[in-house]
Amino acid sequence: MTCPNSESLSAFADREAPAEEAAFVRAHLSGCAACARRLRSIEAARRALAALPAPDAPPGFVDSLLAGARPAPWWARLLGEVRSGFLQPAGAVAAAGLAAAALLVFTHRGPAPDAELEVPAEVLVSAHERFLRTMPLAPAETEPPAPDLTLASAGGEGDVF
Amino acid sequence: MAFEAVQGRNFEEFVRSYGNKAYQFAYRLCGNPEEAKEMAQEAFHRLLAHLDEHDPSKPFDAWFFRILRNVVFDETRRHERRRTVSLDVPVSGPFGEESYADLLPDQEEALLETLERRDAGAAVRRALDKLSPEHRSVLVLCDMEGRGYEEAAKVLDVPLGTIRSRINRARMAFRTVLSRMPEVKP
Ligand SMILES: [Zn+2]
What we know:
Chain A has a domain at 6-51. Helices cover 66% and strands 0% of the residues of chain A. Chain A has nine helices and no strands. Chain A has helices spanning 6-13, 19-29, 33-50, 61-69, 74-84, 89-109, 113-117, 120-134, 148-155. Chain B is mostly helical. Chain B folds into two domains: 2-81, Rna Polymerase Sigma Factor, Chain: A, CATH 1.10.1740; 115-180, Arc Repressor Mutant, subunit A (Orthogonal Bundle), CATH 1.10.10. In chain B, strands 1-2 form a two-stranded antiparallel sheet. At the A-B interface, helix 1, helix 3, helix 4 and helix 9 of A face helix 1, helix 2, helix 3, helix 4 and helix 5 of B.
């Protein structure tokens, strides 16, 4: 008596085996205790996996996704990055420059509008430019989906497996 | 720019109907609420950044879950290089290379008993986490989310036959890992 291979049993357990194969496995199972036990084991594993908890997202999660999708002003993104500590070294330098510039504006220059623009504006602009060059924040600058997408569609089993 | 129509569907609507599903999918794959949140977020970012690359002849939600799967794989590879077991789980047994990885009868019984216990969750989760992301994702899609092979093939972007062989190997890897856990004592 030839036992079906494991792939056959596994597909049968998933009700994904083609009709002829399924008929063979079904007939075999009635006379083979070992395969019946293997099938029971596959099904028990599936039930145990299905029973693992999958909690809902925390409240406000979807709103935070939507808020994240709206382009935020550059200064808000910068502040967010500084707070979360995700700044890369170059960005950190730019941020530090920016913070220093802001401090200059508010402590030494006072509220006079044209005085405010004189020197710090350059610092601000260059810090911001450096920041933009080094810190990929905008969605357009995030990594593309992993290259294995194309590899996988070309070859299937050639996919990382 | 962010809220343009996606296949006749408003982006906001898409986020509302898939935000929670994305979180749950990521959670199932990684088992950690904070990581799941970050991964789902990153997937939506990538989705927005690459909207123009979507092939309209393919279902949009499967494409999105593929992006999410990539995010999870990238993260998993970054964090867990050490913790996964080999993909080539030894498959020895009386039925040859592709046959069922048989355990000794008392091991098999112990495994079944563990799987059927009410408190098996922690051990099952740990065993799942030790699998490669490829094996884990096929178990998440088919066994945990109850998707068929065809749907899983679309999400993982592999041929149907690959799902069939991969889920079998994933199951064998899962049994092997679980049977070595201290909870599973013959
Ligand atoms: Zn048999």
